[in-house]
Specification:
25% helix, six-stranded antiparallel sheet, 795 residues, seven-stranded mixed sheet, 20 helices, elongated
């Protein structure tokens, strides 16, 4: 069964990719053989209209055309297709277009005539259609429209190899139901205006073999115009289903074959004699098939006959004598249910295998015929015109398949599958499969839908539950240790690496509640519009946090109250921000935060004790940022934060984009929050930290490095970072190292000045640098610093 993904998506919507959908269908038992594009790769091909078409003056088989593609000027195009003519809507590959096979359209001259494009055939666009000449589009095709968009060519065909028991999926309806069940998505069938009878025309039908044909429907339709072309959308769907377009009547019956999996047949009403009889063939009864072959029928073959003999091999092949032709105006449309065993093996006995016999052998839905008959009638009336008579039905209720309730025991289900699936999930799976489910004391009773004639016993229900639940979701309970590699992009900082680094630097990981005290949060973030819980655990946990600061500060206070003066904590978690554009009005952002308080190091006889400050935490944070291998992309700028000291707060940026803050807690908040000592905090947006650069190995230079130290006098308000940035910009590729190793303010220095001592390391990978080059680089650096930052060398 080959089907177009876009057609199935009209019935059931899913966001799965082509390959993901194919894998899902395969894992559900419907093996996918191939996923193929419906057209080749091409671009710049549009709908055009042939405005003029004349004979080439120097070539009998070429025509010179002018084509309108919706631009200011008509295109001159030379074409050799025999069906090219004035007024035709065509596919035009403009100059610059690339066709399958990397064939590029260029301006050219053919036998002296200019040709600025090409009129395309199906094969030239990589479309599998047997047709001579160029593509003929409908007259209402909008000129200038991209042909991929107009024909919906960004689509794929999925070829499914069905097992004989899954004949319900031999149609788009069945496949859509299956996909809907697998994804818990509702299936939406197409709708149409019912085709009510407008004439009293009828035809006598009799069924002599009710066990073979429990239901037979016929309908007379008169006044059809068989010159009407099948609409392009129908031709495309047939093509993608592997069926060639022939004429409107045949196309419509084939369309219903693909859509619902129900074969149909049309007789020329004028060629029928007497009444139509469904019976077994007589021994060696002759019949000419639609393809012109003559056969001698066997007694086991079911036929549809009239007064002159067999008109059709039931469910297999139509007869030539009563077939529809170009002169046909009135038809008798047939839609029947044939018992599978009455068709099985009959086609092969004559060397035949048709789409119709393939479906009837496996079984079709015995309740589907009325719906399909109405659908086909409506399509015929809309495309070919005409009037329809009432539906003629001959049926045998005694021989129609009847579903019986099947008992599914909980104990048997658990034993066979090996796990226990929740009752609600079992009921949901069976219900979505179209079954009527009744809960019983020890299990369930299920009545299979008419299209699932393969479900008859308890094991069938168990298979369906396991299949839809997902074989991959059933755990392997063997006593074996198995490890699965977790997919991880190499260019990415994992939270585990961040945790390990911070722990190695003396931090402890904290996990605090997402619910915080609204008063504390309001103290830290007076401008925040927090989300208040309607039913909180307590008043102190009634607001969703807008930052990790609140929980970390409370954790520090808790430790300080228990004689823990030195605390170093970090946390990774979500903050919750109101956002009308987010799902449920809440934007959840993963964050990374840290806090330090107390001494920089533990008490030690050989280490001078000092309190932790801003630069201590900044060093820890820079170590985290360096995990990205892009430390140079991060920078720190003077910033402001409602919870932090106005003079000791920095904005953390990555490539100029703010990603967080670092600073000392605001002095006015220390007592309010219960802190006993100064605390330094940072918080970053974790998603902005995660992208990393994959390090590349580089050869170490074999030539000596040269160090030069400079001492600069700058204004006190000049940032050291700005100085280093200027040096990096001017130093060039030979500057491989730069380090600020001393800052001096005091005696011998003006009150508004400070001294920065900086070491420069210069090295080349190809040669030893000469003293002149080194001096020139240092001079350029000093000159640039003087011009941009008013810096001068210290005496």
């Amino acid at each position: 069964m080959k089907f177009s993904k876009s057609w199935v998506m009209e019935w059931v919507r899913t966001e799965l990719s082509d390959n993901a959908l194919a894998e899902q269908i395969t894992m559900a038992g419907l093996e996918v053989d191939a996923v193929e594009a419906v057209a080749g790769q091409f671009n710049n091909v549009v709908v055009g209209e042939v405005v003029e078409c004349g004979q080439h003056p120097d070539a009998d088989k070429l025509r010179v055309t002018k084509v309108n593609v919706g631009e200011a000027e008509l295109l001159d195009i030379v074409c050799g297709a025999p069906n090219c003519r004035t007024g035709l809507k065509v596919c035009v590959a403009k100059v610059g277009a690339t066709l399958p096979g990397d064939f590029t359209i260029k301006k050219a001259k053919l036998r002296g005539q200019p040709s600025h494009g090409m009129l395309c055939s199906f094969s030239e666009l990589g479309i599998d259609v047997e047709a001579d000449g160029i593509i003929e589009l409908p007259l209402d095709a909008p000129v200038g429209t991209d042909i991929r968009e107009y024909l919906n060519l960004d689509d794929v065909n999925i070829d499914v190899d069905l097992t004989p028991n899954r004949a319900d999926c031999l149609g788009i309806a069945g496949l859509a139901r299956e996909i809907g069940v697998l994804n818990s998505v509702d299936v939406v069938e197409p709708t149409w205006t019912p085709a009510a009878a407008t004439i009293d025309a009828s035809f006598p039908i009799r069924v002599e073999a009710p066990a073979d044909c429990p239901r037979y429907l016929g309908r007379v339709i008169k006044g059809l115009n068989l010159q009407a072309m099948s609409p392009l959308w129908m031709q495309e769907k047939l093509r993608r289903g592997g069926i060639r377009s022939i004429d409107a009547i045949v196309d419509i019956t084939n369309y219903l074959l693909l859509e619902y999996g129900q074969p149909m047949h049309a007789f020329d009403l004028a060629k029928l004699d007497g009444e139509l009889v469904v019976r077994r063939a007589h021994a060696d009864e002759p019949m000419t098939l639609l393809d012109g072959n003559e056969v001698k029928l066997k007694e086991t073959t079911l036929v549809i006959a009239d007064g002159k003999g067999p008109a059709c091999m039931a469910g297999i092949f139509g007869g030539d004598r009563t077939g529809v032709s170009e002169t046909t105006t009135d038809i008798l449309l047939e839609c029947a249910f044939f018992a599978p065993l009455s068709i099985t093996g009959r086609a092969r006995a004559y060397g035949l295998h048709t789409d119709s016999s393939h479906r009837f052998e496996r079984g079709v839905d015995p309740e589907l015929q009325h719906k399909v008959m109405d659908r086909a009638t409506r399509l015929l009336l809309d495309i070919c015109g005409g009037e329809a008579g009432p539906v003629i039905e001959v049926k045998s209720d005694e021989h129609l398949p009847k579903a019986s309730p099947i008992t599914l025991r909980r104990a048997k289900l658990d034993k066979v599958i090996g796990i226990q699936i929740a009752d609600e999930q079992v009921v949901e799976i069976l219900t979505r499969l179209g079954m009527q489910v009744t809960t019983q004391a020890d299990g369930w009773s299920a009545l299979a839908p008419s299209w699932r004639f393969d479900i008859a016993i308890e094991e069938d229900l168990i298979e369906e539950v396991a299949r839809i639940y997902g074989y991959n979701n059933i755990p392997n309970l063997k006593p074996a240790a198995s490890l699965a590699m977790v997919e991880q992009a190499e260019g990415q900082v994992t939270i585990k690496r961040v945790r390990d680094l911070l722990v190695a630097r003396g931090f402890q990981e904290a996990i605090t509640y997402s619910f915080v005290d609204p008063k504390t949060q309001q103290t830290l973030f007076p401008q925040s519009d927090a989300i208040v819980l309607p039913n909180p655990i307590s008043v102190e946990m009634s607001a969703m946090r807008v930052s990790l600061f609140t929980g970390l500060i409370q954790a520090v206070v808790y430790n300080q109250n228990r004689q823990q003066p030195r605390v170093r904590l970090f946390e990774q978690g979500l903050r919750f921000i109101k956002d009308e554009n987010a799902e449920n009005g809440i934007r959840q952002e993963p964050m990374l935060a840290g806090i330090i308080t107390g001494n920089q190091s533990d008490e030690h006889w050989d280490v001078k004790s000092r309190g932790a400050d801003f630069f201590d935490l900044k060093g820890d944070l820079e170590a985290v940022l360096d995990l990205t291998a892009e430390g140079g992309s991060f920078s720190f700028e003077r910033g402001e934060h409602s919870a932090l000291h106005p003079g000791q707060t920095a904005l953390v940026l990555r490539n100029g984009e703010p990603i967080g803050h670092i600073g000392v807690i605001h002095p006015n908040l220390e007592k309010k929050l219960g802190l006993k000592t100064r605390a330094v905090l940072f918080e970053l947006e974790l998603n902005k930290l995660v992208p990393a650069k994959v390090p590349l190995a580089a050869e170490i230079s074999r030539f000596p490095a040269n160090r030069r130290d400079i001492a600069l006098v700058v204004d006190r308000q000049v940032l050291a970072g700005d100085v280093l940035a200027v040096i990096k910009k001017v130093g060039g590729n030979q500057l491989v190292g730069i380090n600020l190793f001393d800052v001096y303010q005091g005696a011998g220095m003006a009150d508004d000045k400070k001294s920065l001592a900086i070491s420069l390391t210069l090295q080349d990978t190809q040669r030893t640098l000469e003293e002149k080059e080194i001096a020139e680089t240092v001079d350029n650096v000093v000159r640039a610093l003087g011009e941009e930052l008013n810096a001068s060398l210290r005496d």
